[in-house]
Amino acid sequence: MGKTCLKCSHINPAPSGKAMEACPACGAIYTKVEYVLAQREQARAAQQAAKEAAEAKQAQKAAKAQAAQKAAEVKRANKAAKAELVSSCINSSTNKTDTFVFTARRKPQP
Ligand SMILES: [Zn+2]
Question: How many angstroms separate the alpha carbon of residue 18 from the centre of ligand 1?
Answer without folding.
Answer: 16
